[in-house]
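Is 6-O-phosphono-beta-D-fructofuranose placement plausible here? Inputs below.
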Amino acid sequence: MTASDWAFLDSAQGSKLSELFSVDGGRVRMWSMDVGGIWFDWSKTHIDGPLLANFERLAAARQFSARRDDLFSGRIVNPTEGRAAEHTAERGEGAAESVQRAKAFHGRMRSLIDAIEAGALGDIRHILHIGIGGSALGPDLLVDALGRDADRFDVAIVSNVDGAALKEVFDRFDPHKTLLAIASKTFTTTETMLNAESALNWMIAAGVEDAQGRVVALTANPQKAFDWGVDETRILPFSETVGGRYSLWSSIGFPAAVGLGWAAFEEMLEGAAAMDRHFRLAPLGENAPFIAACVDLYYSQGRGCETRAVFAYDERLRLLPSYLQQLEMESNGKSVTAEGMPLGRNSAAITWGGVGTDAQHAVFQLLHQGTRLVPVEFIACIEPGHELDDAHHRQLLNNCFAQGAALMAGRANADGARSYPGDRPSTTILLDQLDSRTLGALIAFYEHRVFANAVLLGINPFDQFGVELGKEMAKAMDSDAADFDPSTNALMARAFG
Ligand code: F6P
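Reply from A.M.:
I modeled the complex. Tokens:
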């Protein structure tokens, strides 16, 4: 990979958004598309034909199509760990044997859910799901987005090792009616194992008969779960080749499958599979994840943008920004290439964001008038998720669309403090409605966008060694011989005595 691969960005046209619109009356048509009920509008970004053509040339140089085929055919795409990345097989799009294995694991999950519904594990009303990172963020997003009106089970997802997080659930769940789902790909993550132990002890202390019999394990390491004391019949395995932050489609999605019902879970897989097919088959110039990645890279590599901001103009999607933070930053926050060479340029931008309209009254000042350029992504749904007066949804969408328009148009004023520079880019993603199928497709879109970014940058998006050093040091702190730098030693002395 050489700097000249990206030289086209230095000479990319510097037209303003308003100019792009005025020279091309068909700009909205050209830079918008519908994929399975999701409307993507990139027309308020600086993407244009020549830029896309250059990215397509870069993609050819990076053997993008071959890399994508590798992803879908179960070949090794994670060279540092010598693994395939088979999250698409979970939704039926992958190597035949991997799809078959995923189906078998799903079948097992479904049978266990049927058994729970039939009362085989007792009178279960509450599901306490314990996991962290990819073993929590995805399920949490699904349950929060789609489960608001579900009346099947109360689902709580606890990730933080701070006891206050568990206590909050202990205060409202009946231990006699609780099923404990321990979600950990490795079944070794210290926070999860401590939370699991405390939750089990809470059930035992409350006198739950056969508390161990109320534990379900969601893991790619069934032996460890068995050693922890989970009966084989309640271990829901998934494949080692499904990465943690890509695992909500596997048994890690258990709280969604049990909380929303199996049909909803399957619809989510189908929605994702439809997006998989789009990503695999659509020409790059009409390929939503690819175009989105080009826009990302134009700003992160061509315009020096350090961050990108995502705002969900729908309360049901309030957890999307934090879900995307792990997906994008753990995947593409790397400083070496897949071959281990220095990247020599910025890796992925920092993802941050929040919920519209709240964020407008908190952080949008910087977006409109700050010195930094932040590409913004708006996500909204045409159909509201409630039955309150239409005025709510109308105002919500008005605000969403107005922000994009204002960022782009700006407004000059002789008084600098009242002047808006404008020409600030935004993408709008508008869902017809928020249902399992559409949410599955949306999440799969983001996964493939991350993959497309990674291929164009030359990064391996499927490892995460960056998180290991801190974990190791946290463990070492429990040792009597713990000795760190003077500042850390002083903090430990003050806290632990
Ligand atoms: O520390 C990061 C990480 O490894 C994530 O990639 C993963 O999603 C999370 O920890 C949880 O890991 P596990 O599912 O193995 O408990």
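Short version: The chain has a mean pLDDT of 96.
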